[in-house]
Structures are given as C-alpha cells and as structure tokens.
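Table 4 source record.
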Amino acid sequence: MTPALKTALNYAERGWYVFPIQPGLKLPYAGFSWKEKSTNIVDTVLAAAAHPRYKDCNWALDCGKSGLLITDYDDPTKLKDPGDFGLLVQTPRDGFHGYSEGPGPTSASRIDAGIDTRGVGGYVLIPGSVNGNGKPYKMVHDRGTLSRAPDYILDGLGPAGGVKDPLDMAPRSNDAEDLLLELDHPTNVQRAKDYLLYRAPEAIEGAGGDATTYEVACAVRDHGISEDKALDLMFTSWNYYKAQPPWDIYELGRKVRNAYTYAKDSIGNATPQKLFQSDSSPIFIHNAKVLSELKPIEWQIEDILVKNSLYYDFGDPGSFKTFIALDRLLCIAAGIDYHGHKVQQGSVFYVAGEGQQGLGRRIAAWHKAHGTKALDIPFFVARAPTQLMDVRALDAIMGEIERLQAEFGDPAVVHLDTLSRNFGAGDESATKDMNTVIQNLDSAFGTDFCRGITHHTGHFNKDRARGSIALHGAADAAFRMAQVPERLQVIAECKKQKDAPPAMPILFDLKLIRLKIGSDFDQSYVMEKAQEGHDVVENVGDSGKLSEAQRSALDILEENEGTLSVVKWSKLCLDRGVYKRNDGFLRGIARLAKRGLTVEADDGSSVSSVLNLLKNQEVRSDEEVKRSETE
C-alpha cells in the first residue's frame, strides 16, 4: 500500500472526499470527472487502488465536497503560525497546505502574493503523493480536529466567501447567428473542461504567458461557453495547474473579457451544433459541380476497406472475429499487404474489451508468422474498455491519439472490440442509444480515419448483427465472419459496401503458431488465405463434413477435456465401437490432424482438440475481463 493510499483511506474514514491523480502529476486521469466521482467510501477507494489503471497513483482531496478550506502558502514565510491549522502539510516545493473548516472559495493571490486557497471547485494533493521529481507531500502535524481559518485569511477573502465576478460582467449581446447556439450546453462545458485540463497550453510568465492566456480564453469561447462561465472554468480548471504563476482572478477576468471582445470568429465556432448551422453558402449546387468534385476511391485495404470509413465485423462467438480484426489491423500498422491486397500504412488504435493476455498471444503469433518486431509497428492497445455512450470518454481517447500522433504518424484506424464491452450505460437494441453511440463516434473522432467495431450476430438471424439496425444503416461497410463447420477454417464475407464494389469472400485457414512465453510453451493461430472469390461459400458446402466415425472420435476427445494420449484415445474409441481395429482408428485420426482439427504435443505424448484449445483461450480471456471489471 502506497503512502498516498494510506492517507486517502484515512481521509475517507473522516468523511472527506478523495480521488486518484496521475502518478507524478497534479492532473486527474483523462476522462475522469473528479467532481462527480470523488468519494469518501473506503471500499471504493480500495477497489480503485486495486485497478491496474490507478497503480501507484497520486491521490487528491476534493476540498469543496469535503467542506474544507485549504490555505496554500506557496511562500512559506507567509505562514504566520503553524498552530492556526489542525492539519498542516508540507509541499514538495517547501510550501504549506493548512486545513480549516469550510466551505470557502478557491482563489489565487487574493489574500496576498504567494497565498492561495482551495475550496469549492478546487483540490489539493495529499500526503504521500509525489511530484515529477519524486519529492513527496509530507504531513507536518495532524491534531485530529479542525477549526475555522485564521482571521487574516477570512478577511482577505472578503465577506462573500465566494468567487464573485471581478468585472461585474454583463452578458454581451451576440451576433444574430450566435443566437441559434445554446451557450453553456452541458456537453460543451465538459469538453471545455477537458480541453483546459488535458490539452490547453501552459501560460508562463516571461515566455508569452499573456498571449497564451488570451488564446486559451478564445479556445474556451470556441466551445460555446459564455463569458462569465469561461472565467469560472479557466479559474478552477486551468489557472492553478497551467498558469505559472497563477493569475489573480481580476487579471484573469480581464484576459477573458479581451478574448470575448476582440475574437474574430463567432462564438461556439468549434461546437457540433455550430457546424450544422446554415451559412451564406447556397443550399443547392449544380450537378456539374458535383461531378467536377468526384475523386477515385481511396482504399485503406485495396478492394476491401475504404479509407476513412465506418465499418463493423460481426459473427457468432467462436467465429474468430478478433483473429481476423487483428490480422487486418496489424497489416495496416505494419504496411504489409493483406493477403495480396495493398494497404495504406498508418497508426492503429485498438480498444479491447477482453484481457490483455489472450490478446497478447494472438499479437505475438502474428509477429512471429510475419517476421516483424512489435517495437517497429505503431499498433496500440487500450488498457481498458471505453464508454461509447459517453462522448467525454471518446474525447479522452482522441486526446491520447493526438498526443501519440506527433511521434507515430496519423491514425489510420480506431477499432473497438466488442460493441457490447464498450457500449456503456445503454441498450444496444434501443435505436435511440445506438444513434447516440454513432453521433458520439462522429463527434469525437470525425471522419479523418477508419472507425471499426466488432459485434455479434443476431440471436435468430445470423446474416445480420444483433441489436438496433441503426448501426447497419450508418455504417459504410459490414463484414460477417463464420467458422466452417467441423473444419479449422473461417469465411469473411462483405455484407455491405456503401460507396464501392463489395469485397469478395475470403476463406482462411487457421495456421498453428508455437510460442514460448517465459519458460512455458504456448500456441495461437494466424490467418492464412486458402481461397478468395465469389465461389468460396459454394465450394465449402458439405465437402468439409466428417465421417460419423471421425465425428465420434473427436467427440470422445472433447469429452475428456480436449486432450488424451493416443493409447487412451484408441482404447476409448475401440471400447465404444467407433472403430473395430486400431489401424482404422489411426487412419481416422490422421485425417483429423490433416484437416487441422487436432494437434500433437511436441513430445508426441498426447493429442489435443484444436477447437477445445481455442475455447479455453477464450474462457481465460473472458475470466481476465470479468476480473478486471470487478477490480
């Protein structure tokens, strides 16, 4: 247990609200709404600490929610009497945090230069947390009870005890076109917060800090935020973490006023609502102009996947959907032809709903089969599923993609596997919820790269995906995966291709790849094209059916946990009358091995059902998912 976690548990037991902070930083995790999610429930704190995402994290105190006022002495000489505070913390820069009963406002240098406060809308890191240089926040003393803040602090804050508008701001009249936009829409407010916390630049005194602050205020304005709300957001979500030193609220108010007075673009210029407003352009254009703007189809994978498209794969459990998706995506990331089809290389981001271990084996097998090195390929796997019903979660993913883009190049595909694992608080069968998911994908990701989804087949109709038909209507392409009965083969069929000829069906063999993980031997499979063309489905037909004896022998193997010695398997088959003689048994199991349905151990001591091995891998992956969801 880390020192910060011990403090967090102590604070929670006292009824104070805490939340995790990124290790070595003062910033919350991307997409984490700390004002809503801070907690004083000890079990919740422990559960969060056990989650891999929050391993060795810092912890922070939600001051306002806890009913506390924290006086932040950046200048330690301004602390008149340490005894004024029932709990006193020393910061890594040798300043102090004095804890008092609240509530109170969050302020910067209002009392005196070098004295700030954290109250409503503010937070502080707690003892045990460390800065980027590894220096900790240290407890100086904790007397167990708190009293009101010293008089010089309360007097300096003023009688109102809260943050007033320093310039007595009155709403400015907006241009006529701005009246169509709802200012301070909750979605836009959250996006502005995320921008301020995670993407806005720092304003540093002596290094263009004034101009940067003006630019940040303009960017908040572009999010459809009113002038007074912009001041509030910048003061509570940016000023203390990105401005060095923080602005006095009066000075910050002037910067915001200037941005709203002199910005050239109309307010809300970057909001989804504004993008759909009409402008001075004509409603109709001539068909000749339409034809003059036609462009050839751009392929991400030639003749299979159109560039910048929204697509989805679907199939029954055990149809190797993930194997096919990984094969396709790793080829794109590596710039390797996809089974004879040229690809346009680009970075790939895979949001997996299954465990890292099962996925890792498949990726390792792919690299071994293709002779590639993982470090050379810009293929990224998310540590946890996302929430498609929450656009803020997708915005956080997009922010991370933009961060990695500078080093690894433009994204080519973001793929979510599976829809149900990443859906969030909604119903995939409800058209309203599915439309929300589609709108969130468009809003957060745009159309500058492919967006892919892995989904399941319908419960009764196997030719369509389950749930709302809205996904199929919105998608540019859809691909169905199906395992060939009693054969280690998979068919991938294109069921929709909106703006191009449909891709031809491909029949894949599953090729066994031996792996060594640590000191243990393991295995997985990769896709190897067996056939491609319109006659693939017809040719598979009934030719792949096993004889009755072969089917029975395979059933016996699977009844015994999928693995038996040849001697024991032969005895069971002969005892049950499946085969009359051992030579007939040996010919039968040789055909099973030739079809790729069984695999012999390296030392020849046993034979295993390939399908059973794959099922066990899926079960292990599902167990990892369930375990991660409860942690």
